[in-house]
Amino acid sequence: MVLSPFNTRLRAEVERKQSRLCLGLDLDPTRSSRLHDATLNSLREASLTIVEETWDRVWGYKLNFAFFEQFGAAGYAWLEELAAAIGERAMVIGDAKRGDIGNSARNYARCIFQHLNLDAATVNPYMGQDALEPFLADPARGAFVLCLTTNPGAEDFQRHGNDHPLYLEVAAWARALNDADNLGLVVGATHPDDLAKVRQAAPDLPFLIPGVGAQGGALEPAVACGASECPSIINVSRGIVYAGEGSLDEISAAVEDYNQRINELAQSHGL
After folding, report:
1. Which of 17, 62, 97, 197 is catalytic?
2. Domain ranges across the chain
3. CATH architecture of the domain with residue range 6-248
4. 189 and which of 55, 141, 211, 235 could share a cystine (Cβ 3.0–4.6 Å)?
């Protein structure tokens, strides 16, 4: 049984793996790759092959449910198989962006943490505290709250408030809920000027930072906004799994490159 709070486990994995890199296994049937074609079985085999090649050199994996659910029941079976194949070799974040109330939230959390046995989930704060509570009930499992996202539509609501935008309110609100030390924030690397503001609002929460790589987010501010007790976990998806022609050697080399650059930046900032 896992007893340590999720954020303690997160920090321990950074130290054990010497990696802050989270690999997003977003395999896309519409893209060409040396490892897969457009069929589900080919995508499945590619994902398992990538895990076998990389698990000991990444902090963990992010599984975006949409890439599996597009295939219906067979895609969900692939998600189950992949989660089981990773097992305890690396941390796994279920990128499901859940956010509902009552029995719905409890059942979503039960699926992600008990059925799939994942370590953390991404959650939407829009419906408030009671929608988040089931994801925080087990201290060993974590929740990353959407705070400032990478998409253009983030401007529609997240920056409302002028001198005190909504995303900073979300950061402060999440910090206040972190009684069990198992809560973090999703903050996009495409907002480098805002990373420091979020860190100031939530100095003791880890960040999950997407947007580096294909989306053009800068790596240095993403790493620099971390701290030894609340590191930045840098998620890279397409920038690794579709590096070059998407061969296994190119994917492996991209993992090495990102790890080296992230670790060098962390060291230069005293992290």
Report:
1. 97
2. 6-248
3. Alpha-Beta Barrel (3.20)
4. 211
